[in-house]
Amino acid sequence: MRLFEAIIDANHRAVAGDPNAGLHPADFAHELPVVALTCIDPRLNALFPNVLALPADQFIWLRNAGNIIFDPMSSMTRTLALACAVKGGREIAIIGHTDCLVRKTSVMDLTNRFQALGIDRSRLPENLTEFFGLFASERQNVLHGVEVVRSSPLIGPQIPVHGLLVDVETGKLEWLVNGYQVFQTPATVPAAENLLAGASASLASLPAFQMGEMKFPETKIGEASTSTAPWLPEPRVVESQGAAPPPPKMEPAPKPIPLPPRIRPGPYLRKARK
Predict the structure, then answer these.
(1) Phi and psi (nearest 5°) for 35?
(2) Which of 114, 133, 43, 37 is closest to 77 using CA atoms?
(3) pLDDT tens digits along 17-27
């Protein structure tokens, strides 16, 4: 059993009321310490690192609003990388939580909150969703964060990156991404590298991309679109040219299979029934 397998097992047994649930960190010395990124919600102060059954000295705790990872080369990814390279972190966990306030915050709410602090809308970035990383699903935000961290060249391939969600009411952990499974299936990497190499050669002749020309949609991570995409063409009714083709000839329905006549009981059956 590996470290996070034992952590999840101990956590679920403890939540179920098992007084003997726990973890022996010495058994997983080669997989410690853990580098964890969580939200800044104060309710998490009483949960970590207890819900992981880890001692404080084996828990490198990083926090930001919404446990959001923006980019493989962002400052948060840099901090995760340094936590591994300098502080000796062996595994990374992106841990979201239920009832997250960032998930509940809309662009309008955020604008009003800044306005109350004396910050006019004109002083804020044009796309608040993209800049602040607003999301509509705690689970999707964790999945996105794991994907970004795993794709970062700053995070070594030997570092498993897990995704978890903790219930702030019960402390129960939900394992969304098993970093061991992702780490153990690298067979698609060479094919992806070959594909990227071919794509790079094709893109070399394209003009330089200017970030200022790109417009980001005001859509949160994990939010489903409820409107028709603007790039879809309007449906058109195409008039038929010439006479319509005759309908296909229908084959006659097969006749039903006749059932055999009912068998009347013989003398031996009548005697048995008596």
Answers:
(1) -100, 120
(2) 37
(3) 999 999 999 99
Nearest to 164 by CA among 64, 265, 39, 270: 39
Question: Any residues with CB less than 8 A from the CB of 159 and at least 6 apart, and which?
Answer: 84, 89, 90, 91, 92
State how far the Cα of 66 lies from the Cα of 156, in Å rounded to an integer: 24
Q: What is the CATH number of domain 3-102+135-181?
A: 3.40.1050.10
pLDDT digits (tens, 9 = 90+) for 123-156: 999 999 988 988 889 999 999 999 999 999 999 9
Residue 37 pairs in a beta bridge with 62, 94
Q: How many CB atoms lie within 10 A of CB 32?
A: 20
Round to whole Å and give the CA distance between 113 and 102. 13
Query: Can you list the pairs that 207-214 forms with residues at least 24 positions away whose Cβ atoms lie under 8 Å?
Result: none
Domain ranges of the chain: 3-102+135-181
| Beta-strand pair 161-166/91-97 | parallel
Q: Which helix (H) or strand (E) holds 142?
A: helix 138-150
